[in-house]
Amino acid sequence: MVAAGAALADEVGIANLTMGSLAERVGVRTPSLYKHVSGQEDLNRRIAALALSEAADAVGGAIQGYAGRDALETAARAFRDFVLQHPGRYAATIGVEPSGPDDPLAAAGQRLLGAFTAILRGYELAEPDVDHALRTLRSLFHGFATLQVANGFQWSADIDESFEWLITFADRGLRAL
């Protein structure tokens, strides 16, 4: 049920995903969905956990065997590709917080964070700077990908060249620290 909801969210946007539209998609009556989820908020949270888990798999898999700029680049591309391919489910992750340490959302978020933390080891940052670097990378990659999904780059420069600039910018900044 969650996978079907995530797929529908990618098509129509998480804000437009309803229990009724999901029921129609899977060919059941809306009350039947309540056997699987407790309501819209639960569905959205489960989609967010799925999205974070999938993003962690994509980024974690991409960085295997890489370090430094190469790891940064492969992670950035994997993250961007995930957001572009799954805009609805990724949007479900924004602003949702785990209800506790046992929440699947927390575990999935920690896996994604762990992948980016592994990249930073190649930059030999001081421990107090790691959180700042993680926030910076999230801001850069999240911002670029969500702007691209929203068709926010409407001028003539090639988007892929701009993304390469972003990766180079991040790499040089991390090395300068």
Give a verbal description of the structure:
Helix content is 73%, strand content 0%. It is mainly α and 177 residues long. The longest helix has 24 residues, at 40-63. It is globular.
Beta strands, count: 0
- Return the structural class: mainly alpha
What is the averaged pLDDT score? 96
Low-confidence stretches: none
**Integer-rounded radius of gyration:** 18 Å
Gap between N and C termini, in Å?
46 Å
Percent strand: under 5%
Compose a concise summary of this entry:
By secondary structure, the chain is mainly α. The protein is built from 9 helices and no strands. Helix 7 (104-121) crosses helix 8.
List keywords for this structure.
9 helices, globular, 177 residues, mainly alpha
Itemize the secondary structure elements and their pairings.
Elements: H1 2-12, H2 19-26, H3 30-33, H4 40-63, H5 68-85, H6 87-91, H7 104-121, H8 127-149, H9 159-176
Helix pairs in contact: 1-4, 4-5, 4-7, 5-7, 5-8, 5-9, 7-8, 8-9
